[in-house]
Amino acid sequence: MTAHFEVRDWLIGYTDHPVAGPFNARWESGGLHLIRGENGSGKSTLGRTIAGLLPPCGGRIVSRSPGPTRFVPQDFGAAALASLRTDQVVASGGWEGGRESGGGSEEVRSALDDVGLLEFATTRFGRLSGGQARRALIARSIVASPTFLVLDEPTAGLDRASIDQVAERIEALAADRERLIWVVTHQSDWLRGPLRSITAIADGVVELEPVGSPTT
Amino acid sequence: MESIISAWELAIGLFADGFLSLVCAAAILPALGVLLAYRRLPFTAMAIPATAGAGAAFGYWVWPLLAGFTLDAPPTPPPPLLLVAGGLLILLLGIAFISGREERSGSAEPRAAILFLGATAAAELLLQASPYEEAASSWLRQGRVLSVLPEGRWRVILMTTLVSVLLLRHRRALLLTAVDRDLAVTAGLPERRWRFATLALVSLACLVTVPELGPHIVLALLLVPSILLVPRAVTFPRALLLTSLAGVSSAVCAFLTSVVLDRPVTPCLVLSTIAVSAALRPLAALDRAGAGRLVRPTL
């Protein structure tokens, strides 16, 4: 079953400060959805609005598939996480609605294995390198098997080798036809995998350009 | 050694209510402090017991006025409910002061620091103005662990049971909203509601324990174990269990020290909390699993 997310007349921004829109869009699973724009254009705001972290300033969600949403933030330096073991950080991603749903030991092991970090399961999160921390947060986001996944600048501040590792993980995630993935980035040359659409934001205007067809 | 044991047995016999109240508070307050530490709210952790203390001081001040105190008839002690109600009143005013727009922008902590200072000063003035002056001021500084009555002990036990049940039942939601707001919201947990729930639990614990044990003991138990142990704890269960263990161990050590050396409990408890929490830090960081081997990380 494919996942979809459709909005109408969406206006994104902060309560008294819209930054982009209004626009209509329908995103479907079966590949990656790129959200791009210059710094300050509102692409992260769009990502956070899709994830439900910000309310839209206007418009509505016409329809969306059921299922959990996860957001992988750009800033992973949260001090509260630094002392925790990586497997504990990943396990917390499975506490949907405060209940354990996918954060058990096997799911954590599998998620860590998926991102190539099983050997760092008991390493403190604060001791991981930038690329490893980013992959750990991706593992945390997938442990609950989310239907919607928003990755905000997943390669920001990483070196080439780490970018390749993250890109490889995202490519693997994109193979899942039941998952709808947005990647928010201002540079997309590193991105691999099937691209379904590009949402470009510039000067407050949001344009959705479909690219390719769903992966099989 | 024998004299220590006999002093201990005598003290436990005489001050059992105070000892039990202290141990209960020492079990639950550090665990609540963990939630505030993960939220990085140290000044709020200081302000809540201080406002509960100011409220109790308000009770000491207002009770003789309500009861019609005269010079011929010394005032009776204020009813405990009045102290709790006074605490609630001042606490609600305090929370209204530190909440609002600033809280969302992350600058509620400076206001909490101001609240702590204001509440401490107000408590001092109110107690000096009350006819209980000497005894009440002594309560403010040293608590009254040794004179807790059975009713007070039951109130603390009841509060500890209630807060423990709520904390255990909602531990994931309380912890997740404390450590990562974005993840909590996407996992369907309204962060504001759970922040309110956290403050409500801490407030309830402080409102009940402060009139019995004094604000300094409550502040030490709420703040010290969590500040020293949370940054080292590798899992959430480790943080919760070790802070509680530090609290209870400190309470026993403080009581013993106080009895043997005949010193007030409050300063003994503050120092033993610091010493025990510092001693437990290596245990918080201990990793039994070893690299690459998962222990159950869930909670």
Walk me through the structure.
The complex is a heterodimer of chains A (216) and B (299). Chain A is of the alpha/beta class and 216 residues long. Chain A has a domain at 1-66 and 184-216: Rossmann fold (3-Layer(aba) Sandwich), CATH 3.40.50.300. Helices cover 26% and strands 30% of the residues of chain A. Chain A is built from six helices and nine strands; from the N terminus they run βββαββααααβαβββ. Chain A has helices at 43-50, 79-82, 86-92, 105-114, 130-142, 160-174; strands at 4-14, 17-28, 32-37, 58-64, 69-72, 148-152, 180-184, 195-202, 205-210. In chain A, the strands form two sheets. Chain A has a six-stranded mixed sheet, with helices on both faces. In chain A, a hairpin with a 2-residue loop joins strand 8 and strand 9. In chain A, helix 4 (105-114) packs across helix 5 (130-142) and helix 5 runs parallel beside helix 6 (160-174). The longest helix of chain A has 15 residues, at 160-174. Chain A is globular. The termini of chain A are close together. Chain B is an all-alpha fold. Chain B has a single domain, classed as ABC transporter involved in vitamin B12 uptake, BtuC. Helix content of chain B is 79%, strand content 0%. Chain B has helices at 2-14, 16-38, 42-67, 80-98, 101-104, 108-129, 133-142, 150-169, 171-179, 181-186, 191-213, 215-229, 236-261, 265-285. Chain B starts with a helix and ends in a 14-residue tail after the last helix. Mean pLDDT of chain B is 84; it is low at 290-295. The A-B interface holds A 51-53, 68-71, 73, 78-85, 87-88, 90-100, 103-105, 108-109, 118-124, 140, 144 and B 38-40, 170, 172-173, 175-176, 178-180, 182-183, 185-189, 230-236, 287, 289-299.
